[in-house]
Every structure is written in C-alpha cells, then in structure tokens.
Amino acid sequence: MNPIRTRGRHRGATPAELRATHAEDVRTIDALRGTVADLMAQLDRAGIDVSGALEDVRVARAELAQAEQAVTDRDRRIADLERRLAVGVRAEHVIADTQPCPVLDRFEQGPVRRLGASPLADTVEIPRPDSAEEAA
Fold first, then answer.
1. Pair 116, 125: CB distance under 8 Å
2. How far apart are CA 17 and CA 26, in angstroms?
3. What angle do CA 37, 39, 40 make, to 5 degrees?
4. Cα 113–116–122 angle (5° rounding)?
5. pLDDT greater than 50 at residue 3
6. Do 118 and 101 meet the contact criterion of CB atoms below 8 Å apart?
C-alpha cells in the first residue's frame, strides 16, 4: 500500500522520529519566515524605488511641458517679429516710392548732401567753415 494514503502522517513513527520531524519542520518554517522577511524588505525597497521613479517621471514631465511652452512662446515671438519686420520693410518701400527725393544737378562735394542742404529741409543751413580754415 502507498505510504501517502495511510491514515496518519506519522503512523507508526516513534516519538523520537516525530520530534526530529517537528524540529525539521520548525527549521523549515523559520527559514521560510526569514525568506519572507527578506522578500518583504526587497518589496519595500522596490516600492520606494518605484515611488522615487514615479516622482522623477512627474518632474521630468513638468519640465518637458515647461520647455515645450518656452519653445511655443519663442516660436510665437519669432513669428511676431518676422511679421513686424515684413510690415516695416513694406512700409519703407511705400515711403520710398511715395516720397522721392528730387535729384539736383549740383551736389555738394559729391552725391552725399548734408541734411541742411537738402531742398526739402525746413531749416536754414548755417554755412560750415572750410576745412582749410579749420586747420588754421
């Protein structure tokens, strides 16, 4: 007959054998309790690591959102400046086209004229002393 199917686990065992089996069971239980304690400690450390990692992920996502917002703001400012520049350039072309400066045959020492010498100037030009007089 199969020994596992007997009515009692220790049927026919002597008290010394039972004590030895009991002591072995106690050692196994103690070893398993130690293993469980070690596993629980590892689980606690892993939980702390996971919570730290989750916090790192949260902070990284917040920093990423701030960086994306900064890039969006920068792009918006660049687009606004490009628009303003284009408007300014168009305005300068319009002004140049609508208010031409008349060209006179006589120039003061070349094609560049002082503002006071311009026929469009509202002020009376004060004559400048010659450079020879300045050197004296």
1. yes
2. 14
3. 65
4. 135
5. no
6. yes
